[in-house]
TetR/AcrR family transcriptional regulator (Antrihabitans cavernicola), 376 residues
Amino acid sequence: MPKVSEDHLAARRSQILDGARSCFAAHGYDGATVRRLEEATGLSRGAIFHHFRDKDALFLALAHEDASRMADVAAEQGLVQVMRDMLAHPEQFDWLGTRLEIARRLRTDAEFRNGWSQRSAELTEATVQRLERQKAAGRLRDDVPTDVLLGYLDLVLDGLIARIASGHTSDNLSAVLDLVEASVRRQH
Amino acid sequence: MPKVSEDHLAARRSQILDGARSCFAAHGYDGATVRRLEEATGLSRGAIFHHFRDKDALFLALAHEDASRMADVAAEQGLVQVMRDMLAHPEQFDWLGTRLEIARRLRTDAEFRNGWSQRSAELTEATVQRLERQKAAGRLRDDVPTDVLLGYLDLVLDGLIARIASGHTSDNLSAVLDLVEASVRRQH
């Protein structure tokens, strides 16, 4: 395939994802109808579903895009920094409320759950590697297994997403994240 | 009002709440239609909305009932024990998935948000009092303000609710809660 055409495809794909992100943020998963997705992306349904099989595929692509970005930060600066970034720019994560809406489907729809788990594999991997490095460097507490530390940080991240989705970030969450960070560090 | 009639009203109210809880758990907030609420409660819409003004009022009454029960446990044994109970019986908290679905409304509907905050005031109060007592007894860390400890436990609770709602409780969450508990305790 010639280069120009690949660039065009990538640009189109990116245009669809950006539009879909705003559309999900504004209307939620069920509310993001095909008509609204057309308006938000400025493209026809034919064009949209040429690039993405269906609304689920769009949703999972967005989740994957987020997880990828988060994985880059997690690899360098850890998962708590990912949370600090979310807290600093909650408006960029509005669409994550959608993630909460789909909780029931995650419980009952195995195929969807599978796609969802895959999207987060990269972030998990980056976080585990960073935790192992920090542990080897003596900066992390060594009395708790790495998988428990990972489970802990993941649980706090889920809490933060729920909080951002419902607009409750005005409290003392920055100090809370300090506490979270301190509690995985080696105690002195 | 004669006693028998008060008993009857309380029983009817309880019947409606139990049915509504299953209905929300099975179908979500939007999916819990009036027809389904009638089926789940075994009562007519007339009877249901004689006791509760509308679906929001039903939902907030359920949230209040939960918060009240949690407050009893939190007052005696702390908020981490509330989470351990949820983890031990996730099926009793299925309906909380609904709480996630309403995140967008919490962000945008001030009246609804207000009703929602009131429902949790009792739980917050019970948790704060217990934290203060533990701090006075020297069992709690004293290098972090109580409001930050409260915000921390609340954030983890929100994460746990998100996890239960999406059916992901099979991991090492019990060990994670040990870590959470240890991190608010006084360090030795």
In short: The mean pLDDT of chain B is 88. Chain B touches chain A through 42 residues (CB under 8 Å). The first helix of chain B runs from residue 3 to 31. Residues 122 and 156 of chain B are 18 Å apart (CA to CA).
